[in-house]
Specification:
With 216 residues, the chain is mainly α. The chain is 81% helix and 0% strand. The N terminus is likely disordered.
């Protein structure tokens, strides 16, 4: 006698349940995601269409070249740590501006400075591995390696581990647990959907620009 099929065939698998928060986040933030992506695409098109804009970007290029690692650290800390906190404070959607606010801001800045160094180094190696051409094949190779390998295995885990370390009071045992597959599946896995939905078009835009402008 055969075993009857389950009646609830629509019941989500563990992975579907795991990724559901990411899908929900994409839906909730679809408008700003699309807006930012449209702006990024427009910026790349404008860069190649208007010589005046290219010349104005030379200021950023010179800052990146002269600043080196210091520029990367400051830019990463500001963009990922300070700017979001400032935006929250201005719009009234974050915590009160007090001592804790600045501690959180500084630590977030530190986390994103570390990630910034990783990303900038990765961009440099991408140029070595694949060159600086902007043909579709080269762009797809760089984007695939970025989004499917380095983002889920290095960039996202680094950020999550550093943020979690502070939450657990830098306790060794709790920090070791954050390096397990169980932690990855529970905390990093759900971010992948949102990460891919937002960053794949943005990264394609990034790799369409000259190397000196990619990180800025």
């Amino acid at each position: 006698m055969s075993t009857p099929l389950p009646t609830d065939v629509s019941r989500p698998t563990p992975w579907k349940a795991l990724l559901a928060p990411g899908v929900k986040a994409v839906r909730q933030n679809l408008a700003p995601i699309i807006l930012i992506q449209v702006v990024a695409i427009s910026l790349v098109i404008a860069y190649y269409q208007f010589e005046g804009l290219r010349k104005s970007f030379e200021v950023v290029t010179r800052a990146k070249e002269s600043g080196g690692l210091f520029f990367v650290i400051i830019a990463g800390a500001f963009a990922g740590g300070f700017l979001p906190q400032i935006a929250k404070a201005v719009t009234g959607s974050g915590a009160k501006v007090n001592r804790q606010f600045w501690l959180d801001t500084c630590y977030s800045g530190f986390v994103f400075a570390v990630i910034g160094v990783q990303v900038d180094t990765f961009y440099r190696y991408q140029s070595v591995w694949f060159g600086d051409a902007i043909d579709p094949i080269t762009l797809l190779k760089k984007t695939a390696l970025d989004m499917l390998v380095f983002a889920p295995l290095l960039f996202l885990p680094t950020g999550m581990l550093l943020l979690n370390a502070r939450e657990v009071g830098f306790k060794k045992q709790a920090m070791r647990e954050a390096m397990t597959w169980r932690f990855y599946r529970a905390h990093i896995g759900p971010t992948l959907v949102l990460n891919w939905a937002f960053w794949i078009p943005i990264v394609l835009c990034v790799y369409s620009l000259p190397p000196t402008l990619q990180f800025p």
